[in-house]
Amino acid sequence: MHSTTQPVAAVASQDRAAGDHRDLDVATFDDEAYSDPEMAWGYDVDQYDEPFPGREPLRWNAGADLGLLILRVTLGGVFMAHGAQKLFGLLGGPGPGGFARMLQQMGFRRNETLALVTGATELGGGALLVLGLFTPLAAAGLVGVMVNALAVKYGSGFFASSGGVEYELVLAGLALGLLFTGPGRAALDNGRSWFRRPLVAGFLGLAVAAAASATVFLLFHGRP
């Protein structure tokens, strides 16, 4: 059996003679390439700390404002049209008397009062959405109206073509989304306290919508 002491000692002696002070307790190969990726692979790793070329950092932009404006005007216009139908009989609507009879058939009592409240909420809330004024309150009122509509139609299926909840669900979802996004900067709410805190305003509005829906069902739905 050959001893390895002498060759190692000889190598160590030669290294010391050459001025190489590497520690023999560690590997004698150059490990700099493993600790320095730039030396090993020839590229600048710092570039991966920067955004991709040509891509702007994520921030609020005019496109979001324009999109929210389009959403507000479209949704608000739809609700205004429905409110005008219920309050004034415009656009082929039933008017307050006709809508009150519809509510009675759905199982609501005090239907004349509820017809006026519903029509005013849709018309007023829709107008406020278009203007971007008191947006959390307007959206909350419209969410409340749609929640009651969904509750009445519960169990009737999904697709609107068969009398389901599809249409009401879309309107409720859009109004709920605006409740949390806020109206965007192209709005009369711009700069107001609730505009600067959309998440807080959204949850407060959601609480208002839930309370309004519960109140309507307790006061107006079912037999006295």
From TrEMBL:
It comes from the Bacteria. Keywords: Cell membrane, Membrane, Transmembrane, Transmembrane helix. The chain crosses the membrane at residues 128-149, 169-188, 200-220. InterPro entries: DoxX, DoxX-like_oxidoreductase. It is a multi-pass membrane protein. The keyword Aminoacyl-tRNA synthetase does not apply. It is found in: Cell membrane. Belongs to the DoxX family. This is Putative oxidoreductase. It comes from Halopolyspora algeriensis. The lineage of its organism: Bacteria, Bacillati, Actinomycetota, Actinomycetes, Actinomycetes incertae sedis.
